[in-house]
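cron nightly-structures :: item 1 of 1
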Amino acid sequence: MALPTLTPEQRAEALKQAAAARTARKELRDAIARGEQTIPAVLDRAKTDQVVGKTKVADLLKSLPGYGPAKVSQLLEQTGIDASRRAAGLGERQRQALIDALK
């Protein structure tokens, strides 16, 4: 399937939107790191908030103080969540298993 040809204006707009989305995801991860947001609250918004929904679960967990790549990998394996899974793609059981494992 070929990608559509974009005009220079459309390409510039798409790049601007992509940069805004990356900035919003960074701000979300920073809020989690500061303790202003919790993982359960963020996961509750995943289906309705596009910024949260498109963020990888592993990235959200790495934002938590004390959680590095090894601990996050172990937690994802323990809960049966693929490392590439995005927040909106979590099923109800996976979401609950993750919340329970974080307690």
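cron nightly-structures :: done
Helices lie at 8-34, 39-44, 50-53, 57-62, 69-79, 92-102.
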